[in-house]
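Study this protein:
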Amino acid sequence: MGLGSLIVFAVLLIVSAGAAVWLVINGMYWMAAAAVAAVLFLVYRLVVLYTGNVRKLNYLLSAFENGDLTFHFAENSSYLQDRIFNILLNRVRDFVSEQQRLRKDCEAFHQAVESLSRTGLMGVAPGGEVRCVNSVVREMFGVNTVGNVADLDRIMPGMASRLEALEDGSSVELPVGSELRLFNVSVECRTVMDGQTPVRVYVFEEKADEAAEARSQENAQWQKMTRIISHEVLNTITPIVSLSDTLLGMTEDHNVREGIEVIGESARGLLGFVNGYRSLSRVPVPKIHPFKFKPMLDYVLQPLMPDIETIGGRVDISLDDDGMVLFADEQLMRQVFANILKNAVNALRDRFGDSHPGVPVIIIRAFVNASDNTEIHISNNGWPIPDADAEHIFDPFFTTRAEGTGVGLALSRQIMRAHSGTIRLDRTDPALTTFVLTL
Protein backbone atom coordinates (compact mmCIF):
# COMPACT_ATOMS: atom_id res chain seq x y z
CA MET A 1 0.00 0.00 0.00
CA GLY A 2 1.30 3.46 -0.92
CA LEU A 3 1.65 6.31 1.56
CA GLY A 4 -1.09 8.36 -0.19
CA SER A 5 -3.56 5.46 -0.02
CA LEU A 6 -2.76 4.91 3.63
CA ILE A 7 -3.46 8.60 4.40
CA VAL A 8 -6.79 8.52 2.51
CA PHE A 9 -7.90 5.39 4.39
CA ALA A 10 -6.89 6.92 7.70
CA VAL A 11 -8.79 10.21 6.99
CA LEU A 12 -11.94 8.33 5.88
CA LEU A 13 -11.76 6.09 8.93
CA ILE A 14 -11.47 9.08 11.29
CA VAL A 15 -14.30 10.96 9.56
CA SER A 16 -16.59 7.92 9.55
CA ALA A 17 -15.90 7.17 13.23
CA GLY A 18 -16.52 10.82 14.14
CA ALA A 19 -19.76 10.91 12.13
CA ALA A 20 -20.98 7.73 13.81
CA VAL A 21 -20.37 9.20 17.28
CA TRP A 22 -22.10 12.53 16.38
CA LEU A 23 -25.13 10.72 14.91
CA VAL A 24 -25.50 8.54 18.03
CA ILE A 25 -25.36 11.61 20.27
CA ASN A 26 -28.05 13.33 18.23
CA GLY A 27 -30.29 10.26 18.18
CA MET A 28 -29.94 9.53 14.49
CA TYR A 29 -29.48 5.84 15.03
CA TRP A 30 -30.17 4.57 11.53
CA MET A 31 -27.70 7.00 10.04
CA ALA A 32 -25.26 6.16 12.87
CA ALA A 33 -25.56 2.45 11.96
CA ALA A 34 -24.65 3.30 8.37
CA ALA A 35 -21.62 5.26 9.59
CA VAL A 36 -20.53 2.34 11.81
CA ALA A 37 -20.88 0.00 8.85
CA ALA A 38 -18.64 2.34 6.85
CA VAL A 39 -16.08 2.30 9.68
CA LEU A 40 -16.10 -1.51 9.78
CA PHE A 41 -15.69 -1.71 6.01
CA LEU A 42 -12.74 0.68 6.08
CA VAL A 43 -11.10 -1.27 8.93
CA TYR A 44 -11.65 -4.53 7.06
CA ARG A 45 -10.18 -3.11 3.86
CA LEU A 46 -7.20 -1.70 5.73
CA VAL A 47 -6.53 -5.07 7.38
CA VAL A 48 -6.85 -6.89 4.03
CA LEU A 49 -4.41 -4.53 2.32
CA TYR A 50 -1.93 -4.72 5.20
CA THR A 51 -1.94 -8.51 5.57
CA GLY A 52 -1.83 -8.99 1.81
CA ASN A 53 1.18 -6.73 1.44
CA VAL A 54 2.95 -8.37 4.37
CA ARG A 55 2.31 -11.78 2.79
CA LYS A 56 3.76 -10.58 -0.53
CA LEU A 57 6.85 -9.16 1.17
CA ASN A 58 7.38 -12.41 3.09
CA TYR A 59 7.06 -14.40 -0.16
CA LEU A 60 9.55 -12.04 -1.84
CA LEU A 61 12.14 -12.47 0.91
CA SER A 62 11.70 -16.26 0.98
CA ALA A 63 12.21 -16.40 -2.78
CA PHE A 64 15.42 -14.37 -2.44
CA GLU A 65 16.71 -16.71 0.28
CA ASN A 66 16.02 -19.77 -1.90
CA GLY A 67 17.50 -18.17 -5.00
CA ASP A 68 14.20 -18.40 -6.89
CA LEU A 69 13.56 -15.30 -8.99
CA THR A 70 10.99 -16.80 -11.37
CA PHE A 71 7.95 -15.33 -9.53
CA HIS A 72 5.86 -12.45 -10.91
CA PHE A 73 3.17 -10.41 -9.11
CA ALA A 74 0.03 -9.58 -11.13
CA GLU A 75 -0.01 -6.00 -12.33
CA ASN A 76 -3.66 -6.01 -13.57
CA SER A 77 -5.43 -5.94 -10.18
CA SER A 78 -8.72 -4.01 -10.03
CA TYR A 79 -7.41 -2.13 -7.00
CA LEU A 80 -5.00 0.68 -7.78
CA GLN A 81 -3.07 0.13 -4.55
CA ASP A 82 -2.44 -3.55 -5.39
CA ARG A 83 -1.29 -2.72 -8.93
CA ILE A 84 1.16 -0.08 -7.68
CA PHE A 85 2.54 -2.33 -4.90
CA ASN A 86 2.90 -5.33 -7.25
CA ILE A 87 4.75 -3.19 -9.82
CA LEU A 88 7.17 -2.07 -7.10
CA LEU A 89 7.79 -5.65 -5.97
CA ASN A 90 8.45 -6.78 -9.56
CA ARG A 91 10.94 -3.93 -9.98
CA VAL A 92 12.76 -5.09 -6.84
CA ARG A 93 12.86 -8.64 -8.25
CA ASP A 94 14.25 -7.38 -11.59
CA PHE A 95 16.93 -5.36 -9.80
CA VAL A 96 18.07 -8.30 -7.67
CA SER A 97 18.02 -10.61 -10.72
CA GLU A 98 20.24 -8.20 -12.66
CA GLN A 99 22.68 -7.94 -9.76
CA GLN A 100 22.92 -11.72 -9.53
CA ARG A 101 23.58 -11.96 -13.27
CA LEU A 102 26.34 -9.34 -13.05
CA ARG A 103 27.87 -11.14 -10.07
CA LYS A 104 27.89 -14.48 -11.92
CA ASP A 105 29.49 -12.83 -14.95
CA CYS A 106 32.10 -11.26 -12.68
CA GLU A 107 32.83 -14.60 -10.98
CA ALA A 108 33.13 -16.31 -14.38
CA PHE A 109 35.56 -13.61 -15.49
CA HIS A 110 37.67 -13.98 -12.34
CA GLN A 111 37.73 -17.77 -12.67
CA ALA A 112 38.82 -17.45 -16.30
CA VAL A 113 41.61 -15.06 -15.32
CA GLU A 114 42.73 -17.37 -12.48
CA SER A 115 42.72 -20.48 -14.66
CA LEU A 116 44.46 -18.88 -17.64
CA SER A 117 47.09 -17.06 -15.60
CA ARG A 118 50.54 -18.63 -15.51
CA THR A 119 51.21 -16.70 -12.30
CA GLY A 120 50.11 -18.10 -8.95
CA LEU A 121 47.25 -16.12 -7.36
CA MET A 122 45.78 -16.57 -3.87
CA GLY A 123 43.36 -14.22 -2.09
CA VAL A 124 43.23 -14.41 1.73
CA ALA A 125 40.54 -12.70 3.85
CA PRO A 126 40.99 -11.68 7.51
CA GLY A 127 41.23 -14.77 9.69
CA GLY A 128 43.12 -16.70 7.00
CA GLU A 129 40.12 -17.73 4.89
CA VAL A 130 41.24 -18.36 1.30
CA ARG A 131 38.76 -16.59 -0.97
CA CYS A 132 40.36 -17.68 -4.23
CA VAL A 133 43.33 -19.77 -5.34
CA ASN A 134 44.25 -20.76 -8.88
CA SER A 135 45.67 -23.99 -10.24
CA VAL A 136 49.23 -22.62 -10.41
CA VAL A 137 49.37 -22.23 -6.61
CA ARG A 138 47.77 -25.63 -6.04
CA GLU A 139 50.39 -27.22 -8.30
CA MET A 140 53.22 -25.35 -6.53
CA PHE A 141 52.21 -26.77 -3.16
CA GLY A 142 51.02 -30.13 -4.48
CA VAL A 143 47.47 -29.81 -3.07
CA ASN A 144 43.96 -30.01 -4.52
CA THR A 145 42.31 -27.38 -2.32
CA VAL A 146 43.33 -24.69 0.16
CA GLY A 147 40.58 -23.60 2.57
CA ASN A 148 42.71 -21.60 4.98
CA VAL A 149 46.21 -20.18 4.64
CA ALA A 150 47.16 -22.19 7.76
CA ASP A 151 46.69 -25.35 5.65
CA LEU A 152 49.99 -24.53 3.92
CA ASP A 153 51.86 -25.06 7.21
CA ARG A 154 51.15 -28.79 6.96
CA ILE A 155 53.15 -28.84 3.71
CA MET A 156 55.78 -26.21 4.49
CA PRO A 157 55.98 -25.28 8.20
CA GLY A 158 56.03 -21.52 8.80
CA MET A 159 54.68 -20.59 5.35
CA ALA A 160 51.48 -18.97 6.72
CA SER A 161 53.39 -16.67 9.10
CA ARG A 162 55.80 -15.70 6.30
CA LEU A 163 52.93 -14.68 4.07
CA GLU A 164 51.14 -12.78 6.84
CA ALA A 165 54.35 -10.86 7.65
CA LEU A 166 54.47 -9.42 4.12
CA GLU A 167 53.55 -5.75 4.04
CA ASP A 168 51.16 -4.42 1.43
CA GLY A 169 53.03 -3.71 -1.80
CA SER A 170 56.16 -5.59 -0.73
CA SER A 171 57.65 -8.80 -2.10
CA VAL A 172 60.05 -11.48 -0.91
CA GLU A 173 61.72 -14.63 -2.29
CA LEU A 174 60.69 -17.85 -0.56
CA PRO A 175 61.29 -21.57 -1.09
CA VAL A 176 57.98 -23.09 -2.13
CA GLY A 177 56.88 -26.58 -3.11
CA SER A 178 56.10 -30.09 -1.94
CA GLU A 179 58.12 -33.21 -1.22
CA LEU A 180 58.34 -33.87 -4.96
CA ARG A 181 59.52 -30.44 -6.08
CA LEU A 182 61.10 -27.43 -4.37
CA PHE A 183 61.94 -24.11 -6.01
CA ASN A 184 62.26 -20.40 -5.28
CA VAL A 185 59.41 -17.99 -5.99
CA SER A 186 58.92 -14.27 -5.67
CA VAL A 187 55.81 -13.55 -3.56
CA GLU A 188 54.19 -10.11 -3.78
CA CYS A 189 51.29 -8.92 -1.61
CA ARG A 190 48.51 -6.48 -2.56
CA THR A 191 45.35 -5.62 -0.62
CA VAL A 192 42.08 -5.24 -2.54
CA MET A 193 38.50 -4.78 -1.33
CA ASP A 194 35.96 -7.56 -1.86
CA GLY A 195 32.84 -5.60 -1.02
CA GLN A 196 33.50 -4.43 2.54
CA THR A 197 36.20 -7.06 3.20
CA PRO A 198 39.91 -6.33 2.69
CA VAL A 199 41.51 -9.29 0.89
CA ARG A 200 45.27 -9.79 0.68
CA VAL A 201 46.15 -11.07 -2.79
CA TYR A 202 49.45 -12.97 -2.99
CA VAL A 203 51.12 -13.23 -6.39
CA PHE A 204 53.53 -16.19 -6.74
CA GLU A 205 56.04 -16.04 -9.58
CA GLU A 206 58.62 -18.78 -10.02
CA LYS A 207 62.20 -17.56 -10.31
CA ALA A 208 63.93 -18.87 -13.38
CA ASP A 209 66.92 -21.09 -12.70
CA GLU A 210 69.16 -20.05 -15.59
CA ALA A 211 71.82 -22.59 -14.73
CA ALA A 212 69.28 -25.42 -14.63
CA GLU A 213 67.78 -24.27 -17.93
CA ALA A 214 71.23 -24.22 -19.55
CA ARG A 215 71.95 -27.71 -18.20
CA SER A 216 68.62 -28.93 -19.52
CA GLN A 217 69.30 -27.60 -23.02
CA GLU A 218 72.83 -28.98 -22.99
CA ASN A 219 71.55 -32.35 -21.85
CA ALA A 220 68.89 -32.42 -24.59
CA GLN A 221 71.48 -31.69 -27.27
CA TRP A 222 73.86 -34.26 -25.85
CA GLN A 223 71.16 -36.95 -25.79
CA LYS A 224 70.18 -36.17 -29.37
CA MET A 225 73.81 -36.51 -30.50
CA THR A 226 74.16 -39.74 -28.51
CA ARG A 227 71.15 -41.32 -30.19
CA ILE A 228 72.44 -40.46 -33.66
CA ILE A 229 75.98 -41.74 -32.99
CA SER A 230 74.84 -44.94 -31.29
CA HIS A 231 72.41 -45.71 -34.11
CA GLU A 232 75.10 -45.34 -36.78
CA VAL A 233 77.73 -47.29 -34.83
CA LEU A 234 75.32 -50.12 -34.03
CA ASN A 235 74.41 -50.47 -37.69
CA THR A 236 78.12 -50.85 -38.49
CA ILE A 237 79.31 -53.02 -35.56
CA THR A 238 76.45 -55.53 -35.30
CA PRO A 239 77.17 -57.18 -38.69
CA ILE A 240 80.88 -57.41 -37.80
CA VAL A 241 80.10 -59.32 -34.59
CA SER A 242 77.77 -61.67 -36.43
CA LEU A 243 80.22 -62.19 -39.32
CA SER A 244 83.16 -62.92 -36.99
CA ASP A 245 81.16 -65.66 -35.27
CA THR A 246 80.27 -67.13 -38.64
CA LEU A 247 83.88 -67.05 -39.94
CA LEU A 248 85.18 -68.81 -36.82
CA GLY A 249 83.13 -71.83 -37.75
CA MET A 250 84.50 -71.86 -41.29
CA THR A 251 88.25 -72.25 -40.59
CA GLU A 252 90.58 -74.39 -38.50
CA ASP A 253 93.68 -72.29 -39.15
CA HIS A 254 95.01 -71.16 -35.77
CA ASN A 255 96.37 -67.82 -36.96
CA VAL A 256 93.19 -66.98 -38.87
CA ARG A 257 91.00 -67.92 -35.93
CA GLU A 258 93.13 -65.82 -33.60
CA GLY A 259 92.72 -62.79 -35.88
CA ILE A 260 88.97 -63.30 -36.19
CA GLU A 261 88.64 -63.64 -32.41
CA VAL A 262 90.47 -60.32 -31.92
CA ILE A 263 88.14 -58.68 -34.42
CA GLY A 264 85.09 -60.19 -32.69
CA GLU A 265 86.20 -59.21 -29.19
CA SER A 266 87.00 -55.66 -30.31
CA ALA A 267 83.61 -55.38 -31.99
CA ARG A 268 81.85 -56.69 -28.89
CA GLY A 269 83.75 -54.22 -26.72
CA LEU A 270 82.70 -51.39 -28.98
CA LEU A 271 79.14 -52.72 -28.96
CA GLY A 272 79.11 -52.68 -25.16
CA PHE A 273 80.45 -49.14 -25.21
CA VAL A 274 77.63 -48.03 -27.54
CA ASN A 275 75.00 -49.76 -25.42
CA GLY A 276 76.33 -47.82 -22.44
CA TYR A 277 75.98 -44.67 -24.52
CA ARG A 278 72.38 -45.57 -25.31
CA SER A 279 71.52 -46.18 -21.66
CA LEU A 280 72.59 -42.61 -20.85
CA SER A 281 70.33 -41.14 -23.52
CA ARG A 282 67.27 -43.22 -22.68
CA VAL A 283 66.53 -42.56 -19.02
CA PRO A 284 62.78 -43.24 -18.74
CA VAL A 285 60.35 -40.78 -17.19
CA PRO A 286 60.23 -41.69 -13.47
CA LYS A 287 57.03 -43.30 -12.20
CA ILE A 288 56.78 -41.54 -8.86
CA HIS A 289 55.23 -43.46 -5.99
CA PRO A 290 55.98 -43.82 -2.27
CA PHE A 291 58.10 -46.76 -1.11
CA LYS A 292 60.06 -47.64 2.03
CA PHE A 293 63.74 -46.81 1.77
CA LYS A 294 65.19 -49.54 4.03
CA PRO A 295 63.81 -52.59 2.13
CA MET A 296 65.03 -51.10 -1.16
CA LEU A 297 68.49 -50.52 0.34
CA ASP A 298 68.63 -54.09 1.69
CA TYR A 299 67.73 -55.38 -1.79
CA VAL A 300 70.65 -53.49 -3.36
CA LEU A 301 73.14 -54.47 -0.63
CA GLN A 302 72.33 -58.20 -0.63
CA PRO A 303 74.47 -59.21 -3.66
CA LEU A 304 77.32 -56.92 -2.51
CA MET A 305 77.62 -58.24 1.05
CA PRO A 306 79.75 -61.33 0.18
CA ASP A 307 82.45 -59.08 -1.36
CA ILE A 308 82.30 -56.71 1.63
CA GLU A 309 82.56 -59.56 4.13
CA THR A 310 85.45 -61.14 2.18
CA ILE A 311 87.65 -58.14 2.96
CA GLY A 312 86.35 -58.00 6.56
CA GLY A 313 84.17 -54.96 5.99
CA ARG A 314 80.81 -53.86 7.34
CA VAL A 315 77.91 -51.58 6.45
CA ASP A 316 76.61 -49.06 9.00
CA ILE A 317 73.09 -47.74 8.30
CA SER A 318 71.64 -44.77 10.20
CA LEU A 319 68.12 -43.58 9.36
CA ASP A 320 66.06 -40.90 11.08
CA ASP A 321 63.16 -43.31 10.81
CA ASP A 322 63.30 -47.00 9.95
CA GLY A 323 59.98 -46.52 8.13
CA MET A 324 61.39 -43.66 6.03
CA VAL A 325 59.49 -43.29 2.75
CA LEU A 326 60.89 -41.96 -0.53
CA PHE A 327 58.75 -40.45 -3.29
CA ALA A 328 60.53 -41.66 -6.43
CA ASP A 329 60.76 -44.42 -9.03
CA GLU A 330 61.93 -47.42 -7.01
CA GLN A 331 63.46 -49.29 -9.95
CA LEU A 332 65.51 -46.28 -11.06
CA MET A 333 66.64 -45.52 -7.51
CA ARG A 334 67.84 -49.10 -7.12
CA GLN A 335 70.09 -48.50 -10.11
CA VAL A 336 71.49 -45.30 -8.59
CA PHE A 337 72.32 -46.93 -5.26
CA ALA A 338 73.75 -50.01 -6.95
CA ASN A 339 76.12 -47.83 -9.01
CA ILE A 340 77.37 -45.85 -6.00
CA LEU A 341 77.69 -48.86 -3.70
CA LYS A 342 79.57 -50.93 -6.30
CA ASN A 343 82.07 -48.10 -6.63
CA ALA A 344 82.36 -47.99 -2.83
CA VAL A 345 83.07 -51.75 -2.69
CA ASN A 346 85.76 -51.37 -5.37
CA ALA A 347 87.38 -48.53 -3.40
CA LEU A 348 87.39 -50.68 -0.23
CA ARG A 349 88.85 -53.67 -2.10
CA ASP A 350 91.61 -51.51 -3.58
CA ARG A 351 92.65 -50.27 -0.14
CA PHE A 352 92.00 -53.21 2.16
CA GLY A 353 92.23 -56.20 -0.22
CA ASP A 354 95.91 -56.87 0.58
CA SER A 355 95.59 -57.01 4.38
CA HIS A 356 95.93 -53.26 4.75
CA PRO A 357 95.40 -52.27 8.41
CA GLY A 358 92.02 -50.91 9.32
CA VAL A 359 88.36 -51.92 9.02
CA PRO A 360 86.62 -51.37 5.66
CA VAL A 361 83.28 -49.65 6.22
CA ILE A 362 80.42 -48.22 4.20
CA ILE A 363 78.27 -45.69 6.06
CA ILE A 364 74.75 -44.87 4.85
CA ARG A 365 72.89 -42.05 6.57
CA ALA A 366 69.47 -40.69 5.59
CA PHE A 367 67.48 -37.80 7.09
CA VAL A 368 65.14 -34.92 6.24
CA ASN A 369 67.04 -31.63 6.03
CA ALA A 370 65.97 -28.10 6.97
CA SER A 371 64.44 -27.56 3.52
CA ASP A 372 62.18 -30.59 4.03
CA ASN A 373 64.11 -32.59 1.43
CA THR A 374 65.44 -36.11 1.95
CA GLU A 375 69.24 -36.31 2.06
CA ILE A 376 71.10 -39.61 1.75
CA HIS A 377 74.85 -39.69 2.49
CA ILE A 378 76.83 -42.73 1.26
CA SER A 379 80.41 -42.83 2.60
CA ASN A 380 83.29 -45.29 2.46
CA ASN A 381 86.86 -45.27 3.85
CA GLY A 382 88.50 -46.69 0.72
CA TRP A 383 91.14 -44.87 -1.28
CA PRO A 384 90.09 -41.27 -1.89
CA ILE A 385 89.36 -39.99 -5.40
CA PRO A 386 92.30 -37.93 -6.74
CA ASP A 387 91.54 -34.23 -7.12
CA ALA A 388 92.19 -34.36 -10.86
CA ASP A 389 89.62 -37.16 -11.23
CA ALA A 390 87.01 -35.70 -8.84
CA GLU A 391 86.07 -33.00 -11.36
CA HIS A 392 85.23 -35.57 -14.03
CA ILE A 393 83.63 -38.50 -12.20
CA PHE A 394 80.14 -37.59 -13.47
CA ASP A 395 81.34 -37.15 -17.08
CA PRO A 396 80.07 -39.91 -19.39
CA PHE A 397 82.63 -42.70 -19.97
CA PHE A 398 85.19 -41.28 -17.57
CA THR A 399 86.70 -44.15 -15.61
CA THR A 400 89.97 -45.00 -13.89
CA ARG A 401 89.35 -48.75 -13.90
CA ALA A 402 90.36 -50.98 -16.79
CA GLU A 403 87.12 -52.95 -16.60
CA GLY A 404 84.97 -49.85 -16.01
CA THR A 405 82.61 -48.28 -18.56
CA GLY A 406 82.31 -44.81 -17.04
CA VAL A 407 78.53 -45.00 -17.33
CA GLY A 408 77.43 -45.66 -13.73
CA LEU A 409 77.80 -42.21 -12.12
CA ALA A 410 76.79 -40.35 -15.28
CA LEU A 411 73.63 -42.45 -15.50
CA SER A 412 72.98 -41.92 -11.77
CA ARG A 413 73.14 -38.16 -12.27
CA GLN A 414 70.70 -38.41 -15.19
CA ILE A 415 68.27 -40.38 -13.02
CA MET A 416 68.52 -37.92 -10.12
CA ARG A 417 67.92 -34.99 -12.45
CA ALA A 418 64.85 -36.76 -13.83
CA HIS A 419 63.55 -36.81 -10.24
CA SER A 420 64.31 -33.05 -9.82
CA GLY A 421 66.99 -34.19 -7.36
CA THR A 422 70.77 -33.92 -7.16
CA ILE A 423 73.84 -36.07 -6.61
CA ARG A 424 77.26 -34.67 -5.72
CA LEU A 425 80.66 -35.68 -4.38
CA ASP A 426 80.67 -33.98 -0.98
CA ARG A 427 84.00 -35.20 0.41
CA THR A 428 86.99 -37.29 -0.56
CA ASP A 429 90.05 -37.65 1.68
CA PRO A 430 92.00 -40.49 3.34
CA ALA A 431 89.31 -40.73 6.04
CA LEU A 432 86.09 -40.80 3.99
CA THR A 433 84.63 -40.37 0.53
CA THR A 434 81.02 -39.21 0.65
CA PHE A 435 78.36 -38.88 -2.02
CA VAL A 436 75.19 -36.92 -1.18
CA LEU A 437 71.85 -37.59 -2.86
CA THR A 438 68.98 -35.12 -2.40
CA LEU A 439 65.33 -35.76 -3.27
Notes: The chain has a mean pLDDT of 76. Residues 210-248 form the longest helix (39 residues). Residues 289-438 form a domain with the Heat Shock Protein 90 fold (CATH 3.30.565.10).
